[in-house]
Amino acid sequence: MKSGFVAITGRPNAGKSTLMNKIIGEKVAIVSNKPQTTRTKIMGVRTTKDSQIVFIDTPGIHRPHNKLGEKMEKYIYTATQDVDVLLYVVDCNLHENEYEKEQKALAGLKKAEIPVVLVVNKVDSIEKVKVLPVIERLSSLYDFAGIVPLSARMGDNVDALISEIENYLEEGPQFFPGDLITDQPERQIVAEYIREKALRLLNKEIPHGIAVEIEKMHKKENGVHEILAVIYCERQSHKSIIIGKKGEKLKDIGSRARVDIERFLGEKVYLELWVKVKEDWRNKEAFMNTIGFE
Ligand SMILES: Nc1nc2c(ncn2[C@@H]2O[C@H](COP(=O)(O)OP(=O)(O)OP(=O)(O)O)[C@@H](O)[C@H]2O)c(=O)[nH]1
Ligand SMILES: [Mg+2]
Fold it and tell me: Cα separation of 89 and 86, whole Å?
């Protein structure tokens, strides 16, 4: 059996988490069209009879503006050190000024000395003839071990990526049980599903200042999971927006999250959401530790 570790890196919004979820076949990392959706490292395991590939999804590479950003940078660094392969994911819809940003992000990988496979993602969203010029320009920025154009959303050519990765893996042990798909505790996944809906339904600066904590989660005798979660935001004005007129926004976040949580747990869920203000929490170490950013 072949086995190994693969880190998924790239700039925010490239589609890293979408790709990992597609490969694993379960939503272990949340996805949104807002940059910096992923905040930690998230493991996703793909086991077949021939191989076990352990993927590590990471936050998008960006310049940190607060302590949370610095932690995210650390997660990227540690996740990309001891792996067998690095995937560098790029959204193929690149504007002229973005090649420089890709180049800067890639410069940070130079120290890694690990084979880097370029994943040119979202090919479903542009004309086929436009993909090749993008590949040509990107390949001049870095000495990639391989290049795979694909659509993480549609799943097109994801198989080719798996074969490419397997080229760099050696015979090895199965690291995790065959039925394990992630290292994320159930509570963390539930909290993230709620944050995903908040990200999707809120705009401007609010999404970046949101954190979700599960205060209570237990299964009642009738089989219903009772979950009490708190959505933290940074300002009183944000709290009002999250709750919305007559509580409509919060209700919407809750009912959409509940659908995902019920699918994930395979059982009925009663979800109660509270909104609290925690000013400038993204710079408060102790608070961040309590909600899982060690
Ligand atoms: N059209 C298209 N959209 C995609 C594809 N893959 C991802 N997206 C979209 O791109 C956006 C960002 O996807 P994510 O998977 O959250 O991106 P990410 O790289 O994990 O982002 P961060 O966690 O913020 O770094 C979402 O709106 C996805 O639906 C794709 O193959 N095609
Ligand atoms: Mg992500």
Answer: 10
